Amino acid sequence: MKTKIILSLVLLSSLAVAQEVPPANPPSEILQLAFNEASQPQPAAASPVAAKPAPVPTASRQHFAAGEFALDLFGTYTDARPDKLNGSLKGGTYGAGLGATYFFHKNAGLQLDSTVNDVTDANGGLFDHSSVSLIVRYPLGKLAPYAVAGAGWDWNEHQPDTHTGLGVEWRFNQHLGAIGEARWIFGTSGAPDAAQFRAGLRYTF
To answer: Which of 10, 39, 57, 91 makes a 20 to 30 Å CA pair with 139?
Structure first.
């Protein structure tokens, strides 16, 4: 009797478990689900972000270019009595000067300068001489040899003169440079000729 009761309980338990387990999907439903998933549009793959090109470094400004404006501070040695026979210079004086130059072209510019020919002359004026010149230069990297020619005015003698010469400029960088120049000043109205040498600094904007 006990055995029958145990078998009955086991049978009832099996039936209860079978009712709780949902029936498996038939093969036709499985195929339909797979077809539905395959027919759905897949999201587009994200396109890789294009890398920005590296900035190209800009070329630095040339050491000598058109549109430059330069200020000069220089010392002078002037000999108004050069011995034309043997080329020696006698009785020169030491002076100083200021100049401003605008280069309207890479190879050419206009210069305005004023000088004190003798800094030891306490009776002299603020400037002894002023001149305007055309400068033609030929840049070679940081070096620029140049030729100069122009006219000037002697404030002491109150008479004009002309000049020509050769010089060279060396740029330490784009702004600061050194200049050296030799010019011959042609006197007028009986005034003697003069040889003048200049050396100084130039700051270019």
So the answer is: 57
Express each pLDDT in 143-187 by its tens digit: 999 999 999 999 988 999 999 999 999 999 999 999 999 999 998
Instruction: State the average pLDDT over residues 177-204.
Output: 93
Burial of 133 (0-12, 13-18, 19+ CB in 10 A): buried
C-alpha 147/C-alpha 165 separation (Å) is 6
Q: pLDDT band at residue 51, thresholds of 50, 70 and 90? A: low
**Structural tokens at position 83:** 């011995």
Residue 108 identity (one-letter amino acid): A
According to DSSP, residue 141 is labeled T
Give CA separation, 10 vs 18, 59, 90, in Å. Answer: 12, 94, 141
- Residue 60's pLDDT band (cuts 50, 70, 90): very low
Classify the C-alpha dihedral 79-82-87-88 as positive or negative: negative
Residue from 96, 107, 43 nearest 72 by CA: 96
85: its two tokens: 């026979």
- Cβ(108)–Cβ(120) under 8 Å? no
Q: Of 159, 165, 168, 174, give the one whose Cα is nearest residue 200.
A: 168
Q: Which amino acid is at 128?
A: D
List CB contacts of 197: < 8 A, sequence separation 6 or more.
76, 77, 78, 180, 181, 182
Contact between 82 and 92 under an 8 Å Cβ cutoff? The reply is no
